[in-house]
Amino acid sequence: DDRLSLNEFTLICRALFRNDKGHIYVVPSDRLEQMFAVFDKNEDGYIDREEFQFCWNQWIKTIVRPISAFLIVDVQNDFISGSLNISNCSAQQNGLEVIEPINKLLDTVDFDAVFYSLDWHPSDHVSFIDNIKQRPIHPTSPLNADNAQVYDTVIFAGPPPMKQRLWPRHCVQDSWGSELHKDLKVEDRSSAYPNGRFLNISNSLLQVVEHGVKVYKGTNPEVDSYSVFWDNKKLSDTTLCAQLRLKGSTDIYVCGLAYDVCVGATAIDALSAGYRTILIDDCCRGVDLNDIESTKQTVISSNGVIVSSREVKAMVEGRDRRPELGYKLAMELKNSESDLSKNNACRRQSQQQQQQQQQQPSQ
């Protein structure tokens, strides 16, 4: 009868949401109803032919054929064996342990895009504890410049007043500590960026290399930048969103250092921007066990998923299709301003242009 009921939509979801071994993921009934409502635009209790066309093109095709970006966060010398070696923090985790599983993913999984982020701080950066006397402290700060210690949080006067966690001096631009670890697989790393080009956009640096893009963050001395998307005050972005939109990315796989700081902030910003976000647990190491657990709970409650690296290949290839990510996509399709909706629109326009070019007679 050219229309789908909720029961028939449920059967489609049973076929759609399963892994590469045939295991069917259970989708809660309330989520099935919410997803159904996204496509039942005229609210008549059915998905008609026109509504299903939208469902097919914008939802099912993305679930089956996602466009996946791999985002490797801050796998830099200072976090592994340098001035901010995370093994010296309370969780006592070894940052070196992320390199082997990350390299294996780079070798075995055909991501559509790969990004490497780097903390890239000027020497007078606000986060360095030895710079604390360079800026006035706000009267409401629980600590002052004389009694604050590393890892404490103070409030700088601004304007506006700004909370800041204090770190050892780390990842200073062009220092050994700021370099990606030598064992991490990165193209064109061996010399002074001979095959790449630097772009300076919105006061952030972005370097395009042969098989990936390096994104430099934390370049503003007055504000820290945990997330690879934005600085901590949301004053400027790093152009990562523009790069993801250009590539039509739908899914972002996030990993690196530190789990509960820059990795977590990046994953949460990816979810806020509307991306289907996957956190790769065994490719991350962190600072504080409680904060790591809090990061995980925030990602899950925001409709992201946490997986091990062995699960990634099947997900990227569309053979392991998680209902949480399908639900996330459906909710984003309600919001035409989300990055994911814009990416889908760009991808659809590109496909239409390619079809038109193919249909044109050759000269």
UniProtKB/TrEMBL annotation:
This protein's pathway: Cofactor biosynthesis; nicotinate biosynthesis; nicotinate from nicotinamide: step 1/1
Domain of life: Eukaryota
EC assignment: 3.5.1.19
Stored InterPro entries: EF-hand-dom_pair, EF_Hand_1_Ca_BS, EF_hand_dom, Isochorismatase-like_dom, Isochorismatase-like_sf, Isochorismatase_Nicotinamidase
Keyword DNA repair included in the entry's annotation: no
Name the record gives this protein: nicotinamidase
Domain named EF-hand: residues: 27-62
Organism per entry: Anopheles epiroticus
Low complexity composition bias: residue spans: 349-363
